[in-house]
Specification:
Radius of gyration: 13 Å
Distance between the termini: 17 Å
Number of helices: 4
Low-confidence stretches: none
Helix content: 40-55%
Length: 100
């Protein structure tokens, strides 16, 4: 039976994400599912998206992915959108709401 790790609420916090991924590797867990909220709050949402794409077998859309992919007048949201870029925003917008 495969061991599955479930991660979520990364919010661009790369030191925390790297620590969790390292722990998952040490535990020899073979599958990682991400329950969303990769972006926002922290300064490195772009890196978080790239790492999650590379390491997670399945990813669903969190409320921050829903929020960050919509047009906004907020300077903070626009800053995150610019840092993410079109390709990552497209990836985030196509994430499913759920998986089975």
């Amino acid at each position: 039976m495969d061991r599955i790790a479930i991660i979520s609420d990364i919010h661009g916090n790369i030191p925390a994400l790297l620590a969790v991924l390292h722990d998952i590797e040490l535990r020899k867990i073979s599958k990682i599912f991400c329950l969303g909220d990769l972006v926002g709050k922290g300064p490195s949402s772009d890196i978080a998206v790239d790492l999650v794409q590379k390491t997670c077998e399945r990813v669903i859309k969190g409320n921050w992915e829903e929020f960050i992919t919509k047009p906004s007048d907020s300077h903070t949201v626009i800053w995150h959108q610019n840092k993410l870029g079109k390709q990552r925003l497209d990836y985030l917008s196509q994430l499913p709401f759920s998986i089975e």
